[in-house]
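Deliverable D4.2, example record:
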Amino acid sequence: MGASDGTSIRQHLLAGQVIPAHPLALTPSRTLDERHQRALTRYYIDAGAGGLAVGVHTTQFAIRDPAFGLYRPVLELAMETARAHLALRPRPFVMIAGAVGDTAQAVHEARTAAALGYDMVLLSLGALRDADERRLMEHCRAVADVLPLFGFYLQPAVGGRTLSYAFWRDLASLDRLWAIKIAPFNRYQTYDVVRAIAESGRNDVALYTGNDDSIVVDLLTHFPVRVGGRHTTQRIVGGLLGQWAVWTHRAVELLERVKASATNEALDRAWLTEAAALTDANAAIFDAANGFAGCIPGIHEVLRRQGLLRGTWCLDVHERLSPGQNAEIDRVIERYPFLTDDEFVRERLDGWMK
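Output generated by the structure prediction step:
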């Protein structure tokens, strides 16, 4: 939704944004619930998000299954709703489409997204688990020829693969790499990406955290790097997160407070307490105790309690809340009410459900 040359989009991304990973609203019969799907999109926009990622893990990879045939309809519905809602109060906004699979599939999905007006592709490399990194570069280049890339380091626990420092240095050679979602849930691998991009000399690639277990720490950290023989620091400027699919209004406030603190020489230790609280809440919602088995239903449950979804149904009938997960969600909501945006949602829900 930016300028045709991408300049405004890139500036928008570099400024740091909250980008929720858009969930999938379903009816009890597991068909697309268009009314609630539109309400979610409107919620994210009014909450102050700077963009949306659609067709990603949180949207459920099964939308691509021919039995459901929901990939294009879901992307189209999000784009149509976002355009109409943003027309009421125009502002910069980026629309990102998830692409998965082998090169043929990923290129096809990127072309579908481009035809619908999406700005970028968040490219998962999980399907090329056994490919060498030279092959991965060819894959990325082919997709980047269709739409600019939002690179993606996805944790192996949910379908990703380990990637080297050298891979990220090579990826930085692609002019159409505009941003990277860093989500290995691993501090060493997170630093690999930050250092590789900084040391490549690129200062126009926006780094976004996808580490839902370390959101606040990622955003606050000045990572030490060496660029052109000079010691300096690199920042992660925003987040593209499943955790930010819930309580999004609070996430926007959090990022604004992080930005306001950037020039402070001393860091208030209260930030570390808030960081731990958000990680604890994420553990409950994402079902960390059970290897993230209830991750998507957990997100759905929080949105259901707010009235934004009708239930926690997933396309995969076996994907459901884990035993004890509901009680854990109860616990973190009671313990950390400052993380929730229930009042914000309650005041506006009727308008979003129109």
